[in-house]
Amino acid sequence: MRKLIPVFALAIFPLSFSSAQDKSGAPPSIDVGAIPEASDEDVVIPIPQEIFNSLDKLGVQNWKQQVHQPEYKLNPNRSRTALIFGLQISEGFILIQAKDKDGVTQIGRDVIKLAGALGVEAAVDQHAFAIIEGAGKEDWASVRQELDKTRKTVIDTMRELRDDSLADLVTVGGWLGGTRALSAALKENYSKEGSDLLNQPHLLSEVRKRYKRVPETDKRGKFFNELSQTLKSLDPLMRVNNEGLIAEDAVGEINQLTHGLSDAIYEGK
To answer: In the predicted model, what is the mean pLDDT of the chain?
Structure first.
């Protein structure tokens, strides 16, 4: 059964924007209602390029400032590794937008390491090496394409291996990383138009559903308690107020929650 998700799909569902300027030269509007139908199993983690383009035209341009690549050490907890994989894929798209050659190259290397820890390295080696090669050439279009292929290949392979819970956690991690970056950018450069992108109650409900279906035995680590609480706390923040927008202070709270949770996952607490 197919359904319409009438919200900004930062990291899970595709969406469309109106980016043409009007005759007065005003900034483009973001058509948050023009979202195509998506089946329940559609999983599109990367932040779409259309979002970056629209936000840039609204005045949000310093994506390098929103990069968040803390050091981390892997452990036998594959559920945590899946979350980190999702976070890193989202980070890769931010780095591409920032045209950070060294950062994107590191993402390519991390993809190999993380895919190996998840048991799917052979499936993504070709994409990872293409990411590294493309970054060296600063061919951002091809790097973006390969990063998206990496995400899709990992999730498809996990589902083939009956590791559905890990695939869902990659999705959650990707959404978390994208929401952190977007809220950070809007916190620095707040606008009503930009805040519309965080009006995500239905999307958040979908993320929570995917997280809920992960077996409790796969939620190992104190940070999973924080993850559960954060998803709950974000719900009222991602709904418009009586003025029809996500208020600036709510954007700050969203950023604080998602940034703190991302750090807890990277630290493995």
So the answer is: 82
Give domain status of residue 23, yes or no.
Answer: no
User: In this structure, is residue 31 part of a structural domain?
Assistant: no
Between 35 and 53, name the one with better pLDDT: 53
The C-alpha atoms of residue 217 and residue 263 are separated, in whole angstroms, by 22
Alpha helix (H) residue ranges in 27-160: 49-57, 78-97, 101-118, 121-137, 140-160
Helix (H, G, I), strand (E, B) or coil at 160: helix
What distances in angstroms separate CA 100 from CA 20, 26, 79, 108, 134, one per listed residue? 27, 30, 29, 12, 12
Domain with 128, as residue range(s), is: 49-267
The closest of 88, 51, 68, 53 to 198, measured between CA atoms, is 51
201 exposed, middle or buried (CB, 10 Å; 0-12, 13-18, 19+)? middle
Q: Residue 90: inside a domain, yes or no? A: yes
Number of domains the chain contains:
1
Question: pLDDT tens-digit profile of 116-142?
Answer: 999 999 999 999 999 999 999 999 999
11 occurs within a structural domain:
no
| Pairwise CA distance, residues 269 & 7, whole Å | 32
Determine how many CB atoms are found less than 10 A away from the CB of residue 5: 20
CB < 8 Å & 24+ apart, contacts of 219-224: 219/79, 220/77, 220/79, 220/80, 221/77, 221/79, 221/80, 221/268, 221/269, 222/264, 222/269, 223/80, 223/261, 223/264, 223/265, 223/267, 223/268, 223/269, 224/79
Q: What is the pTM of this model?
A: 0.84
What tokens does 36 get?
């195509």
